[in-house]
Structures are given as C-alpha cells and as structure tokens.
Amino acid sequence: KENCRPDGRELGEFRATTHCLSSGSITTADGSALVKLGNTTVICGVKAELAAPAADSANKGYIVPNVELPSLCSTKFRSGPPGEEAQAASQFIADVIENSQMIAKEDLCIVSGKLAWVLYCDIICLDYDGNILDASAFALLAALKNVQLPSVTINEETGLSEVNLKQKNPLIIRKHPVATSFAVFDDTLLIVDPTAEEEDLATGTVTIVTDDEGKLCSVHKPGGSPLTGAKLQDCITRAVTRQKEVKKLIDKVTKSIKPK
Asked: What distance in Å separates the CA atoms of residue 71 and residue 135, rounded to the nearest whole number?
C-alpha cells in the first residue's frame, strides 16, 4: 500500500548491483567474475577443455552450465546432491545460453569433426538473498566476457593438438542476455529484484530475459499466480531498460581491466 519495501526500496527499484571482474579472482579458471545483487553473491568460473565434437554437430563446441546452491549460502539448502532449485537454475541458464545465442557454438569449433572447445561454467552462490536467476545470468555473462582461449592447431604429422598459451583470443560474445526477475503479489502487484523474504511471501515469480536489441530471449514463469498480458508487457519494458544498465556496467568494468 505504501509503495515501500522492507529494505526501503520502491517497488520498481533494483538492489545495488556490483560486479567485480578480475581475471585472477580464480587463478585456475579461464574466465571468472563475482557479482553482488544486494546481499545475493554469486561467483562464476569458466573452464575451457578440448574435446571431440558430437557426431551430429561436427562443427560445434559445447557450453555446460552448472548452478550450485551450497549449504553455506543459506540455511534453506542442504549439503549433498543438487536440490530442486539448483537444478531449475541450471536448466534456466542452459535455456538462456541456447535461446539468446550469446555464443555461436560454431565459434568453439577448432577443426570440424575433430576438435572443439567445451566451456564448463560453474556458477556458485556464496550468499543467498533471493533472485538467484538474475545474479547467475549476470555472473555467467561477465565471466564469459573475461575468457581468453589459447590458439590450438593440430600437428598434421602426429595428429595431436598443440596449444599455444602465449597467443590467446577473447571469446566472441554475440549477444548480452540479461535476466530481470519480478515477484507477483495477489496478481496485481509486481516488485522487481525480490529478496529471499519477498520471494517466500510472493504468490509467484516471473523472469524475463532480453538481449541487446530488446528482443525477448525467454520468459520463465514457474507456476504461481497468473499475469495479465498488460502486466507481462510492463515487465518486458522494464527488463529492456535493465538490460541496458547491466550491459553498461559490464562494459565499464571490462574496459577498466583490459589485458596489458
């Protein structure tokens, strides 16, 4: 009623978003990024490995995302195999990669039918305070922007691959998909970037993913109360604005740490 939330934000206000991108934050990873959305903290590390392409797509590499919600990030999670929420988040990220075409899998192919890159993207939540999907998608994008792949050739005499670590090329990111989540209350009230407390009280959530051109990449609505067309359109409009803000933030941080 008062248009005010427990943490003092207005209904349509995002939490402060910080994005620390340091190519050395995980020294064993080929690209990494840490993203904070209010208290929600997510780190993403990308590991690149060589593999043979699949027989039915000889000219494509692979991207394998995995979202982890360990017990250390919140009392609601237990140790052990991934729970339902972690599995749903991993599937959501896989769909975003696929639907947005952020990376053309053909770009990951080195020699058609013989050799391609596999990018293992591990997204780990360090502190859970709601809206894990937005933070995960943001961390993934920031980490991928940070990836440098060494040049690889196949020695024709031995048939073995030779990796040149001195010559590295950045990954080609074709689209910058950004997720924007809303919590729905009583079918009428929409609040953006919900905290864990607000998620628990909400009657439903919806996540909109848009790219650089304002195109819709995906709408993720796991059950809950329905949304009218007009409300959904309102969400999409706000998501398009959010995409521009996040893209600006990523570009700013990426520029500040250009490899020497």
From this structure: 18
